Amino acid sequence: MGIRSLTRSEAERRAALLTVERYDVEIDLTALPTGPEVRCVSTITFTCHEPGAETFVDCAARVRGATLNGAALAPGDDGRIPLPALAGHNVLRVESVQSDTAAGPGVHRAVDPADGEVYVWMSFEPDEARFVWACFDQPDLKAPHAFTVTAPAAWTVTSNSGDARVEDLGGSRRWTYPDTPPLSVYNTVVNAGPFHEIRREADGRDLGLYARRSLAEVLDRDADEIFTLTRQGLAFYGEAFAMPFPQRRYDQVFMPEFGGAMENYGCVTWSDAFLRRAEPTPAERELLAIVLLHEMAHMWFGNIVTMRWWDDLWLNEAFAEFACHWAAEGATRYTDAWAGHLASDKLRAYLADQGPATHPIHQPIHDVAQAASIFDSITYPKGASVLQQLMTYVGEDRFRAGMAAYFARHAWGNTSLQDLVNALAEAGGRDLDAWRTAWLERAGTDRFSLERDGESVTLVAGDTPRPQVLAVGAYQRKGGDGEALERTALVRVEVAGSRTPVTGLPSTADLLLVNDDDLTFATTRPDPTTSDAFFGTAAQLPTAISRGVAVSTVWDMLINGEVTAAEAGRCVTAVLSAETSDAVIEPYLDLAANIAELWAPPAERAGLTAAVAAACRALAADPGRRQVALRGLARTATGPEDLAWLREQAGDDVDLRWRALVREAELGGDVAAETALLLEGDPDPDARIRALAVRAAQPDAAAKAEIWQRLAVDREVPVSSVGQIATAFWRPDQDDLLAPYTRLYLEAIPQLHVGGMIPAMGYTRHLLSPYAVDADYLDKAREASVGAPPVVRTTLLERSDAIARMLRARAGAA
């Protein structure tokens, strides 16, 4: 029998039956420098409310021995150990070994190619702790955890509760940590390796940063920024939630071959891809700030107060995604964070919410396997935008008061959606039941437009809209040439139904902008009297957020077949030429290039790409935009002249030289010698990934076969780099070379889930080609995914819908 996924009914029964008093977990990492094994002894002390009843403990590692109250237990064969005839008070002890530390879930052994040093990380969301030690792997059985870790003498170990007692055992050291607060199992962590460590005191806290030693210079470069953001974030959240973070120590550990970041209590684990080898761009710096603040928000939303079951995952993720932008604008220098959100993640959410994989933000979750499928654009960016709307709807002061009451009432416990709604309704003084039902239990996106009849203006919704407050901005041309717009009025409207009168707007406005200030999650259309001029005037709007609302309107019209790629591309390129916000320059460059590459008909692709390349060359004249513009040109260079100019501008910039090589390889250049030379001289310990990207882009059958084997079959590429290599592999105008691999993808679908949630999402999405496919192929892919785990099925549905829309746009079909 395979490893079973915990169902909601099983979790509810087990939570009603048991109270977990504590976990004592002994972990032995001493075999890892030369072998794959992590050895654990998990001792769980718990009470049973029905003595004589039976249940099970989760353990998907190899069990070497298990006892319950001193009596030996038979090991299970489905990732569970049966626990028969429970006493009122119980002590369970399980010895386990996990040897699949190269590609399995829960724990990973990474070897630094720079020096051969070994690092190990653990990451457990949603239910992957069971692959490392025995536990009750569900969020509502919280308990203190005491970790004792034996590791090689040269290693440092990090865990949740910070300050360990360290004993020298000769060739190894034992790290004994104090008890954590009551935590869900998935909030715990152990990371280890011969780290480079930086510590700093700030506002009475002990802050730590860790990375592999080969990245010491990069961590040193970024440490001041990371410490500043950490201090600012802890202060903001402590005040906003009326609850300072309750632990003095707060560590952040940057690990190789890790995907994304994970909010373990007091000890956040990051992919060390966030430590940029080249000087970070403004957008990359802002992304680091947003992710740091997202994971920090989880200390409250997820760790201190935890959802009872995975149907309330949004209580963790949507709130953290909302809070990180709220905190960035309120406490850091990244004051255009919401504009950056609108320019990137929110556009993806609009696309996802109109496709076959959409779902309500809050929905029934049968088992944990299904839960893994909702770590997506609906839960994250749509959820964040809905919460921004909720704060608008009740008012920020009342929203803060509701949050404070929520944490005071439920700290160290578990909650459901209703607990949060009650706290916010009490503080906000308004009934939120209708709001909750409409926004959290209903999928899909509202769409608004305006009707003008003389001096009257009406906000019109396509269907029955959700309760919400949004703004309509009125803009007038200014200056002698009329090449700029200024806002002359902003009217907030509480939507009352399918038609809501809007009062207070000047009748002479040259442009009316629906959802100005981006206060809600809804798509919009320009009003008929100004729609013809809308695409040309988007760049003339005065702020990053107003321009962003216009771009999001154009994007939604593109994905729904209402405008052509050429129209959308010209609009975005024009906005780029006028944009002043660092938060959105890079996302818009990516968007413009994506429109040209992925959405334009083949006959128009080269022209649109050349227009983006020309915009990049123009932007490069501005010193503040130079780095981002040259990166954009490295993606869109149209031929030898662009490439020669780019090489001249790049000089000794290794990052730009790699990017230029990928483009030159795609265009058929002979880059083998230069690739080898650059690889030899690049100090980045992961420079081999850059060389693989160059190889992947080549229009060469042998190169494609080699990369597919290494990427999709052998899985040599770290999960954080799968998208980079796959993007270089799937290139336009290489259909004959790519066609065989579209067939291999169909054959690979049954194995795409291997390795856990993050790899499953990455491989499913990035190995599905946007080229050399047609509608019939996408139907076959969907059919092949019917029996796949939910995370694969959902990811494939979402991605295939996006590609289907691209195919229609390329064909010029609505």
Automatic annotation (TrEMBL):
Record-annotated ERAP1-like C-terminal domain positions: 512-803
Keyword Disulfide bond: no
GO MF term set: alanyl aminopeptidase activity
Alphabetic keyword roster: Aminopeptidase, Hydrolase, Metal-binding, Metalloprotease, Protease, Zinc
Domain of life: Bacteria
EC nos: 3.4.11.2
Residue ranges of domain Peptidase M1 membrane alanine aminopeptidase in the record: 230-437
Entry annotated with the keyword Metal-binding: yes
Cofactor(s) the protein needs: Zn(2+)
Reactions it catalyzes: Release of an N-terminal amino acid, Xaa-|-Yaa- from a peptide, amide or arylamide. Xaa is preferably Ala, but may be most amino acids including Pro (slow action). When a terminal hydrophobic residue is followed by a prolyl residue, the two may be released as an intact Xaa-Pro dipeptide
Pfam family, one: ERAP1_C
Domain Aminopeptidase N-like N-terminal: 117-186
Family according to the record: Belongs to the peptidase M1 family.
Identification of the protein by name: Aminopeptidase N
Native source organism of the sequence: Streptomyces gilvifuscus
Lineage of the species this protein comes from: Bacteria, Bacillati, Actinomycetota, Actinomycetes, Kitasatosporales
Gene name per UniProt: pepN
